[in-house]
């Protein structure tokens, strides 16, 4: 049982909880909440993969000198990726919310079982 | 009921895959080759102390340009989708409940401080944790506080759009400058690398991150004002 | 990693899972679900800090738990007056 395993399993469980919420709810806003939780879980898994036990953050200073950096820092690449993913995640969430608002404005409901225009 | 059953089975399958991944995972003891390269070459190539910043702004700079473009498109689409519902012009809607005195006075005190902190975060992006995206989000939260204190406030969309496009233009311009004066597109060595660890170091990284911060802050503010100015349904 | 740190991160992960379940629990109102999702983000940012990723922790705290929650509430405030919740 290490910190890495705890963080990774938490991330996987968050993905499952988020997907469950996105798949079972009928209210569009609740589905978007599920998606954001799944996104948080994915980010947690990625960061946990890049973590190396007992190492420091990838910022060089007096405590983490340049010469020994490759033996004392964690993997910086997943961190850069996840930073990008969080920012894009907000963009995706904002877009979903804007469409949800528009649906409510035109149809007067957020319940997907009542939106039957494309159903036959 | 069958629908819930299908959902449950699907989640069970995904969970089984995750469990397999989790049990098969063994932690690395050393950095892999690309991480090793970033760890050893960041200071000599870019002069930045924060390796994550160096990766985002220089090594993978083109990806970041794509990222802010995606954000710009998102802001534009949100504005487009909601444009039909915007409160026309500057008409003031009656407030449903008064905003507290505490919030109004606190906003006057806090907004400059929050904006200053946002600027601090993106100017120091190459030295400390933080950078353009975080700083931009903090700037946008200053706007958010103003919006909460006075829900009828209308921000000048033209100014936001102008900040956004000017900083985007300069970002690309610096990238092309890198092509002409240094090793390639978005190379930060168009300016001297300076002393490691000082504020004016790491070549063009602080400049690029300030531009990213302004651009991201403007984009987030635009998304927020679009959503908050939409009419009640 | 000291044992106390391990216990603390276990507690944190248990809290995260509990709050996430609260966010998707059908009986809760949408406002509670949005707040719970924001709390999951905030706790994830603490987890990122423990996993030696301060940059990501800062981004998650500012964007994931701050701005996202407020975007939800802007939309929630607009659709509240409708029939369903």
Keywords:
heterotrimer; A: 120 residues; mainly alpha; Helix Hairpins; 4 helices; 0% strand; B: 233 residues; 68% helix
How does this structure look, described?
The complex is a heterotrimer of chains A (120), B (233) and C (85). Chain A is mostly helical. Chain A has helices at residues 3-24, 28-50, 69-72, 76-107. Chain A has a single domain, classed as Orthogonal Bundle (Helix Hairpins), CATH 1.10.287.3510. In chain A, helix 1 (3-24) runs antiparallel to helix 2 and helix 2 runs antiparallel to helix 4 (76-107). The longest helix of chain A has 32 residues, at 76-107. Chain A is elongated. The mean pLDDT of chain A is 85. Chain B has one domain (49-86, 101-229). Chain B is globular and about 60 Å long. Chain B starts with a helix and ends with a helix. Mean pLDDT of chain B is 81; it is low at 87-92. The mean pLDDT of chain C is 85. Chain C has 85 residues and is mainly alpha-helical. Chains A and C meet through helix 1, helix 2 and helix 4 of A and helix 1, helix 2 and helix 3 of C.
List the helices and strands and how they pair.
The complex is a heterotrimer of chains A (120), B (233) and C (85).
Chain A: H1 3-24, H2 28-50, H3 69-72, H4 76-107
Chain B: H1 2-24, H2 33-46, H3 51-59, H4 61-82, H5 101-123, H6 132-149, H7 157-181, H8 205-229
Helix pairs in contact in B: 2-3, 3-4, 4-8, 5-6, 5-8, 6-8, 7-8
Chain C: H1 3-24, H2 30-50, H3 54-79
Helix pairs in contact in C: 1-2, 2-3
Question: Short description, anyone?
Answer:
The complex is a heterotrimer of chains A (120), B (233) and C (85). With 120 residues, chain A is mainly alpha-helical.
The poorly predicted ranges of chain C are: none
Q: For the report, how would you describe the main beta sheet of chain B? A: none
Percent of sequence in beta strands of chain B: under 5%
Helices of chain B, by number, come to: 8
The tally of structural domains of chain C comes to: 1
Form type of chain B: globular
Major interchain interface with per-chain residue totals = A-B, 48 and 57 residues
Number of helices of chain C: 3
**Any idea what the radius of gyration of chain C is?**
15 Å
Instruction: Give average pLDDT of chain C, whole number.
Output: 85
Please state the CA-atom Rg of chain B, rounded to the nearest Å.
23 Å
